[in-house]
Amino acid sequence: MGDDSEWMKLPVDQKCEHKLWKARLSGYEEALKIFQKIKDEKSPEWSKFLGLIKKLVTDSNAVVQLKGLEAALVYVENAHVAGKTTGEVVSGVVSKVFNQPKAKAKELGIEICLMYIEIEKGEAVQEELLKGLDNKNPKIVVACIETLRKALSEFGSKIILLKPIIKVLPKLFESREKAVRDEAKLIAVEIYRWIRDALRPPLQNINSVQLKELEEEWVKLPIGAPKPSRFLRSQQELEAKLEQQQSAGGDAEGGGDDGDEVPQIDAYELLEAVEILSKLPKDFYDKIEAKKWQERKEALEAVEVLVKNPKLEAGDYADLVKALKKVVGKDTNVMLVALAAKCLTGLAVGLRKKFGQYAGHVVPTILEKFKEKKPQVVQALQEAIDAIFLTTTLQNISEDVLAVMDNKNPTIKQQTSLFIARSFRHCTASTLPKSLLKPFCAALLKHINDSAPEVRDAAFEALGTALKVVGEKAVNPFLADVDKLKLDKIKECSEKVELVHGKKAGLAADKKESKPVPGRTATSGAAGDKDTKDISAPKPGPLKKAPTTKAGGPPKKGKPAAPGGTGSAGTKNKKGPETKEIVEPELSIEICEEKASAVLPATCIQLLDSSNWKERLACMEEFQKAVELMDRTEMPCQALVRMLAKKPGWKETNFQVMQMKLHIVALIAQKGNFSKTSAQIVLDGLVDKIGDVKCGNNAKEAMTAIAEACMLPWTAEQVMSMAFSQKNPKNQSETLNWLSNAIKEFGFSGLNVKAFISNVKTALAATNPAVRTSAITLLGVMYLYVGPSLRMFFEDEKPALLSQIDAEFEKMQGQSPPAPTRGISKHSISGTDEGEDGDEPDEVGTDVVDLLPRTEISDKITSELVSKISDKNWKIRKEGLDEVAGIINEAKFIQPNIGELPTALKGRLNDSNKILVQQTLNILQQLAVAMGPNIKQHVKNLGIPIITVLGDSKNNVRAAALATVNAWAEQTGMKEWLEGEDLSEELKKENPFLRQELLGWLAEKLPTLRSTPTDLILCVPHLYSCLEDRNGDVRKKAQDALPFFMMHLGYEKMAKATGKLKPTSKDQVLAMLEKAKANMPAKPAASAKASSKPMGGSAPAKFQPSSAPVEDSVSSTVEPKPDPKKAKALGVSSKAKSAQGKKVPSKTSLKEDEDKSGPIFIVVPNGKEQRMKDEKGLKVLKWNFTTPRDEYIEQLKTQMSSCVAKWLQDEMFHSDFQHHNKALAVMVDHLESEKEGVIGCLDLILKWLTLRFFDTNTSVLMKTLEYLKLLFTLLSEEEYHLTENEASSFIPYLILKVGEPKDVIRKDVRAILNRMCLVYPASKMFPFIMEGTKSKNSKQRAECLEELGCLVESYGMNVCQPTPGKALKEIAIHIGDRDNAVRNAALNTIVTVYNVHGDQVFKLIGTLSEKDMSMLEERIKRSAKRPSAAPVKQVEEKPPRTQSINSNANMLRKGPAEDMSSKLNQARSMSGHPEAAQMVRREFQLDLDEIENDNGTVRCEMPELVQHKLDDIFEPVLIPEPKIRAVSPHFDDMHSNTASTINFIISQVASGDINTSIQALTQIDEVLRQEDKAEAMSGHIDQFLIATFMQLRLIYNTHMADEKLEKDEIIKLYSCIIGNMISLFQIESLAREASTGVLKDLMHGLITLMLDSRIEDLEEGQQVIRSVNLLVVKVLEKSDQTNILSALLVLLQDSLLATASSPKFSELVMKCLWRMVRLLPDTINSINLDRILLDIHIFMKVFPKEKLKQCKSEFPIRTLKTLLHTLCKLKGPKILDHLTMIDNKNESELEAHLCRMMKHSMDQTGSKSDKETEKGASRIDEKSSKAKVNDFLAEIFKKIGSKENTKEGLAELYEYKKKYSDADIEPFLKNSSQFFQSYVERGLRVIEMEREGKGRIPASTGISPQTEVSCMPAPTSTVSSIGNTNGEEVGPSVYLERLKILRQRCGLDNTKQDERPPLTSLLSKPAVPPVASSTDMLHSKLSQLRESREQHQHSDLDSNQTHSSGSVTTSSSSTANIDDLKKRLERIKSSRK
Fold this sequence. Notes:
With 2033 residues, this protein is mainly alpha-helical.
């Protein structure tokens, strides 16, 4: 017991695994109880036992095993996860349970197997059971068969696959064990129950006794179709529903289900294929040609034996078929003909679809051989052709059959008709479309009038069969002219026909419905039920509903219509006959008179031919009245029109009578049952009058009415032939015009294009220009419907004419055909029509191609030519090919019969000479175009060999083959290619090129198909082997193609197909399938069918539901391809993630985790610069491609290897997209933490992301865009500016994605483009986006245009590159785009520009076509009417745009001054009232909210202290006094709102309106001239200068180019600007406020102005340039010297960098620098040298000496040397102390250069110079003895050591060290403690800080305290107040100390408290502008991170000493200034609010 108690305590799972059987038994019992208790099948509890289940069934102890089996059964039945255990458990059951002696065990085992099948694991179970059949133990074999039998019996043959079982049956029947044989017999009986006779062929070779026994058993089986008694889980709900229905007494659905289950298995499928080609007698081909018929017979008999095999292996049977065909066609011995026919039958039956490729060759031969009378020959031929028909489609052989129909031999005619009849039986309504039925019916109709009765009967039978297959509705139009007797005969035949496919509904309805179908030639072929059901219901009563409810089978299936008897009820209605095509015999004139006199007044008839026109007129009036009152049924139309045609008839001379007459004809046609007979009477007369000036219109009306009554196609044909059979050109041109109009009204359905075309050609050749013009117009209308293929008919017209036709077509391009308004016959209900013509588009599309006149070229393909092509000498082969190309070229369009050419060309496809292979491919491409869709029949024998060429090793040959295959597929569609095993055979070949090309092709084509042949599944095993191919490209292509295979075959089938793979492969493939399942696109929607046709396909809009505008269907025609992709599931990413988790192999994870800790980006100094140099120097490939080639990817990989973590790089370049997602996730995580790394590798990251844009996987794309959004946000926070290189290798590819079909992606891309404007100037973005508008993708064009609009709206016209004019012209081109969205976007963009720029837009866009111009004007009008609220909304949608920093948009707003100012003031004064907002112009309204927000953010940074003191200043600003209504010309009220007024005026300086600008300048000038008031401008200088240079730029770019503007105006504006500036720069205190960036831009503007040649040409131009010269001198002298020097250096650097800038410009900049150099001796002390040297350092870094030497002139290098020399001369060695701001001095040669100069000057000056100062410590050192030094130092260290004198000691040590810089204090420190050493060092550093600060005060402040006040932004700048006051009242001195250090690092001074006016005095000054400071503050924010030296600039905002405005901006300074400007403007407005 001790043992027992041990295991009893164990938990269940451990008990189950215990070695004691009792313990296990107890464990299993407990497990069973647990399983029974768990209610939820998805409970996690189940998963715990997953590992146990196999143990339960394979226990070694029989008793325990039984219990285990019970538990396992419960588990499998209830656990959701049980499926995972299928394989192991079933194999356990097979090996360990089925061999048990206990019956109970076996039963449970079988139950478990069946339960697994129920939970959808049938395949796995079946696989294990079949393996069990090979077991040596017969018990196991018997049990496996029994299990399979039970499974089949219960689940049915849909679930249990019979083929593998049937395969092993013969082997089982041969078993030695009786038990096995008996069980085999039982399962054979069970299989027979399901598939009946299909089982016979596979078992024909078993023992005859066994077979006999089986036969006996089979006979006993019940006849009914078996039903499954057990269902899979997924079907059980269905089963429950079935039971309910059955209990309710409706067995219908069940019956339906079974019906389609029975023929599921085809015996053919169950057979093994036999290879016979190798078994042919060796001398077969010689014997078959032998002279003796006995030898030929022997040869044929040998073949006959071989082809008796029921299933033949695929192979190249071409030669065999050719030989047999020859016997059939040419052999004189009829017995051999019959034998050869039998052989062909055998081949066709054995090969099935694989024989299809030979069908086209054999069919004509067999049909023609029907001339033989002998019954046995005829029978053999019939069998042969019937067997062959089943291997191909009617479509493929239709041409051949129709050609034979015209044969003179009646037997051939008869047999052909009978063959057609038999063929039709195999068709359904969908496989016999109207396009196919039409030619057959036409040919058969000739036969029913044949003289030979047997021909007639055969034709009746064929037509009857067609009638039965597609229903009367489809056939009737073709039988319109058949008389009643014959029609009845056809119907009689139709009733006798038995269809192969069975027809579910009775024919009564069909038959009766034939009457009401309007006699049109246009009704649809594949009549769906919808088509027929509503036809004859003239009243919308219940009648109409009835047929709908009883329609047989669902509509839209293309099955024949089969409503029940209700259809006929409608027909019996008394109005029935009217809806029918009215056929009436021609009546004699006497009968007509009689009939007419019955309905017309007698006088009327008498006066018809009166000689008095008035009487005739009166008579007509009566006639008209009578017609109007007549009832439709009583109106004798023919009689009436005969009366009208009676003398004088249509020769009536009086126009009034004639007009009446024509009007009456129209009335009769509208009101009566007007027949074609009646029409014929009048049409001639109408055509004669159509050209009449007075009566023409009436004639046209009458013709239209007749067209409505008799259908347009018929009427048009009559009218055209009449018009062109007479000579009057006016009539001809008017007829053509009428027809153009009629087509638009009636639609194009059913028109005979061919007939028109011959007439149109006649018209085009007419001498009368009016006729030609009308013909071209008609062609234009036809083009709308037919599409581009129409042009093919006119290729051979004269070039001049052709160009006119092309111009007409061009006009129609992009238009969609109008919806038909007439012809929807008034008698029938319009609903009918829509259904009826559902197929129409289809027909029009194909019709046109069918109509082309095709040439027969088979006679030119002579045997000589064929032998030439196969000659041994390649030159002769080439000649032969050239000839073929010539023949095809000449014929243009050819018939499909091309004789022996296919075999000859096929041979050339594997020619050893690649040039010939390419030539052959070109010929085949030509052939496809020439033959059109008929090339289908050559797909198998010529198309598939082209695919073989895809495996060629030469790239160009493969490309040619691919182009050829595509050309073919375009004509044939994909069905032919995918049918049969040919394609799978190609994939089977292990040629990597072939595989990758073929898979690539399939991946492109499959997504566009709506359905595929089932044979596609044959490719799957080979696709799987490609997934594991050793070639990476093959694997990738296979992965790409996987989702598309799955889209057509479904996941289940694909997963099933993995069954045959090795286990390792299977897992991998299943994993890929899971992944593909997530990416599986949906099948293209139904509309795709129409859209893939030529444009005509979508033509007759009548047939589209009204809600879908026709335009849609057209646009889908233009780009049908992306459709399937749209449907890709968006859920991909989440699924992908979960899948990803599963798939990562665990082995490597440990190692990887260790590696992944470090940073992912490694910062390589100068790495990026080096890469750019390499790219510029063409050492590496420039990042520029349409699709990324491998070399680009490799290059990027190499470049990344040095700066990206290895493991991340592996993820980034992995072939699986999951890994890309992973990499992106990692990059997102590290974005914040590794800013420097990201910026260092930014160029590479962006390049890698561009590669992701070419991935097809949506989840990767979404992730990429997500990352980009975060990345650009980070970059803008870091104030990083994209380099040109980064931009050009990224932006173009981003722009490609704007055209993505998915909305989400487009939105993201637009958001990224918005954010990019913060890191890359909008003006540079502009050209990239402009380039994007040239794309073929209309979505991309539209989005790019919208984006351009946004850029202009946000940044003004300056973004337009190269000039606004050029840019706008480019944009305006798109107004005429064929795509609606693009047109709209273009219009909106130009309207945006108009809003910014006013009427000048019209001048900039140049001339537009009238149509475009009117659209634009209309749009501008509309946009003006829109309420002003709209733009605000726009802003909310695009927040990043409006806040973007460098916007200067508002500077450029147009609008007269008074308008702006008054409105603004209005808005300001009413700022309290919300209504005010509405009255402000939209430009301003936009930004007010933004500015409010902006102010908010600034205020947040203010400390309480300052905030508190500012209240009183702010108040007046917020509530302005009403005095400032308009802009006051005087500044009398120096209130504190002065600032806001100044802001306002300055904003007007930059106005686009010259007068506004001049007014503002005058006001500012007035202020500047009065000394007492000039001070008010303080704090506004930068702002004013920015406005000024903006105005200069505006004049330069826009006003000067504007011819309308008076040049005097511009000169006046220039004088004002220059005068103003001169006034400003005379006031030194104000001049010094100008910051570097602003000065740079100002100098740029002034120098550009000096160089403007357009000014020089003006009268006063010279004067302007002289004034500018004077101004420049003033600027150089009076500005802050540091700032101006810095500005000039940056400007010089920019001008040398810019390729566009002229050398003259750089020269003037250098002249300014020379002038500055001359001023240096006086100004050197007021210059911040550190900053200047930093600028020079940067300059030298950008332009190393070598680069400068390359400049065209030597001035730059001389200028720089002169500047440095002068500085060295003035400062001496001290100059080297001023390099503090340079981080890495080695980056440029500056230090080395200075040292050289110093050395040089020392050598020259020698001992002359002052020893103390100039020579430094070295000489003093020589004098002072060492001893002295040591004593001195010892003294100092003593002081430092004592408590009291520490500071003094440190100060002395500092002085000493400064004096003797190389004195060695090391020995003194060495002996002291570490703490002491560091204390000394720290002390020295603090002193250095303080001294440096003080020491530089005199040097850098050369301005009065007064000035300082004016520029110091005390009020709002927090930091400045802390920094300026020495910090006592702010807080502990610690902060102050820290601040000092920071300031020191930035080269700022640390003024003492007493050198600054106290804070209170600052605040009390009324002139301090409260807003100015916030400018500077924002300003400093911008420049904060631009260069390292400006890191902490905002700690002091004194613009004189801190140069906050970006002292050195490198190439990006201009953008920075625009940034400043944007901020300033926002502030300006805020002050105005």
